[in-house]
Write a structure and sequence with these properties.
By secondary structure, the protein is α+β, with helices and mostly antiparallel strands. The chain has one domain. The protein is built from 2 helices and 6 strands; from the N terminus they run H-E-E-H-E-E-E-E. Strands 3-4-5-6 form a 4-stranded antiparallel β-sheet, covered by helices on one side. Strands 1-2 form a two-stranded antiparallel sheet. The longest helix is centred in the N-terminal third of the chain and has 51 residues. The N and C termini lie far apart (84 Å).
Length: 250
C-alpha cells in the first residue's frame, strides 16, 4: 500500500503555524507567570502584616527597628534590618546583623533561627520576593557593590520598612529620628509600612532601575498600615512622597 508523504511545502506550513501559535502564547504565558509571582509576593506581605500585628501588640505604636553603624562612632535605625537574613552589603551592619537580631523574624518564623555568629548559610524564603530582580544601581559607585541581581541576598530581604522618605531624613516617616514610637498617622489605609525595595527606586531623584514587574515602569507591592496589601502600584519618577495610591508620610 502506497503512503503519501508530506511535501516540503506542507512541512514548512506546519512549522510556520506552530511558530505563530508559540508567538501568540508566549506573551500570555509570561503574563500569567508574572501574575503568579506578584500574587506570591503579595501573600508574603500579607503574612508580614500578621507578624507585624503581633509585634505591635507587644510593642504598641513601635515598628520593628534595628540599628546599624552609619560611621565608626554613630548608629541609626536602618529600615532594611527590620527582618530577613544577613546580607552582603558591608555598610550599615547589613552584613553583620543577621536573622537572630532582625526583630520581626521571630513573629513570622516558627522554626529555630541560627545565631548571627553561626557558620552556616541561613535562608529565609519568607522574605524573598519571587519578583526580586535586584537593581542595576545600588547608589554605591564601585564594584562589586554597585549592582546586584537580588536585593534578598544583597540586603537580607526583598522588602524594606518605611523609615525615611524619598528625600532621605529630611521628612520623618513612621520611624522617628533615632527610633521610637510612630507619630499619629492620619491615613493608615494610604500610608505604606513594608514594601518591595522598588518603592525607593527614585531615592533622592536617582534612578535605581528596579524594573521588577515591567521593563519600562517601576512598580511596587506594599503593605499598608491598616494591614491590607496593594499590588503593582506605580512609582512615579522623581522625588514624590505622596501619590493617589500611597504616601510615605504619616
Amino acid at each position: 500500500m502506497n503512503r503519501r508523504a508530506f511535501t516540503l511545502i506542507e512541512l514548512m506550513v506546519v512549522i510556520a503555524i506552530i511558530a505563530l501559535l508559540i508567538g501568540i502564547l508566549l506573551p500570555a504565558l509570561g503574563a500569567a507567570r508574572l501574575s503568579g509571582r506578584t500574587a506570591a509576593c503579595g501573600a508574603r506581605l500579607q503574612q508580614m502584616g500578621v507578624g507585624l500585628t503581633m509585634y505591635l501588640n507587644d510593642y504598641p505604636d513601635r515598628l520593628p527597628q534595628a540599628k546599624g553603624h552609619v560611621s565608626d562612632s554613630q548608629e541609626a535605625v536602618i529600615g532594611a534590618l527590620f527582618a530577613g537574613k544577613k546580607g552582603q552589603l558591608p555598610f550599615y551592619d547589613i552584613d553583620k546583623v543577621g536573622a537572630e537580631r532582625r526583630p520581626l523574624n521571630k513573629y513570622l518564623i516558627s522554626r529555630a533561627v541560627p545565631p548571627d555568629d553561626s557558620s552556616g548559610v541561613v535562608e529565609l524564603p519568607e522574605f524573598q520576593s519571587p519578583v526580586d530582580k535586584g537593581t542595576q544601581n545600588t547608589g554605591i559607585p564601585y564594584p562589586p557593590f554597585d549592582k546586584t541581581d537580588s536585593m534578598y541576598d544583597f540586603i537580607g530581604a526583598s522588602y524594606t520598612l518605611n523609615d525615611h522618605s524619598i528625600e532621605g531624613d529630611e521628612k520623618p516617616t513612621l520611624v522617628p529620628p533615632g527610633g521610637g514610637r510612630m507619630p499619629y498617622v492620619t491615613q493608615p489605609a494610604r500610608t505604606w509600612v513594608i514594601a518591595t525595595h522598588t518603592i525607593y527606586n527614585y531615592q533622592s531623584d536617582d534612578d535605581r532601575q528596579m524594573y521588577w514587574f515591567k521593563q519600562d515602569r517601576v512598580q511596587a507591592n506594599m503593605l499598608m498600615l491598616d494591614m491590607h496589601v496593594k499590588l503593582r502600584v506605580n512609582v512615579p519618577k522623581g522625588v514624590v512622597n505622596t501619590t493617589d495610591d500611597y504616601t510615605f508620610l504619616p
